[in-house]
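Why does residue order matter? Because the sequence determines the fold. Keep that principle in mind as you read this record.
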Amino acid sequence: MDAKVFFGSTEAETGRWTERRSPYDGRVVSRAADCGAEETHKALEIAKNATKAAKASTLSQRCSWMHDVAEKLREHKEAIAQTITDEVGKPIAFARVEVERAIETVTLAAETMRTMHGETINTDAMPSGRKATAFFKREPVGVIAAITPFNFPLNLVAHKLAPALVAGNTVVLKPTPEAPLTAYKFAKIIIESPYAVKDALSVVYGDAEVGSALVGSDIPRKISFTGSVPVGNIITKSAGIKKVSLELGGNAATFIDESADVELAAQRCALGAFVNSGQVCISLQRIYVHAAIYETFAQKMAEETKKLTVGSPYDDSTFMGPLINEEAAERALGWVRSAIDEGARAMTDVRREGTMFYPTVMADVTDDMAIVCEEVFAPIVSLVKVEGFDDACPRMNDSPYGLQFSVFTNDLKLTQRAIDELEAGGVVINDMPTLRFDIQPYGGVKLSGVGREGPRFAIEEMTELKSVVIV
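Structure:
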């Protein structure tokens, strides 16, 4: 099936196509219309012209629109899940979970927007003031440029489109080149809804040329990007005076205290490190383990990892499928070999077959090894022995990233310290740092990004406050 361009509500072809091959078996699974700067500028103009109608639409209409989209996603759940698996190799069981999460995200956006409102202000609260009727209200920013990655090709699109559209904005979406058909199917549902605002959503496909045209244009009032730090840096320098949200990389870490439930910690850490083949911004990469339980935890972690089923993403029982491409698998193997050469110990078999890289637990890792310093974005987790939280905390924080961290402990005082002292956008107690509820604010500090997602928090960033005084 072809992923066509949407110039607003109108489907079109460019006459040029790019094939997408399955990362699992190499089959051609989709084609996307090639776009360049010309198509991008056309989409932006359409979005600009549609802002008046979008702003004038009623909240009731826009909420009905999102609820209709959620309903259609549920009706087409299996077909969309299969498309996710085809394009990015995500195991089908997890692809179905992603569709369910997208349904919740869209629904949450509608329900949240119903309760978003301004406030009245007491203008006579200070001596310099006087009595007046004053309040502020929220208004849509206008045109939003949304750029999304491959690892959650449906739900991360939903996290941008649903808040933006329900708030009365228009959007030009550039989805990941790795999953154009997933985005196309979602966009088609949105655009063909009987409640849709005409031309509120456009979709263009491509890579750097399209992204540069989106970011450099004066038309978007806001850029919402999820992806790598280098691209985030380019966007920051190129965007000009716009609102910018960046959800970038991570190097998630956890501390296993001697008071923790070791078996539970190993089970949850195996899930957090290897779900989606480690291709998650909050994938668990570093585990700092109290010396008193280090060897016990290392053995348990290896045991839990060996239980995971690696294989065809089309098998319901598969936990882990391929990496996104051969380059990613080769890079993962390089990380592991480098660490072993530097003295680390592999607790599981180091095994690569094409794009398949088997889950790997590395023990005796030190802070100066690249495998803990940089974001690996692969199914590799490193164990580091520490003397306690006082030893672990500064080492966890000694990273350019700060997306999510966690601590496993039954010590209440340590829990409070972790919440206060860990430098991250999110802290999880007694579970993996990969835990994310879509209703929560999500985003990081330092190089992990700027701004927050989650329907309520995205809506806040996709609206402007207008102050009003009546005297």
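The chain has two domains: 2-248+448-470, 252-437.
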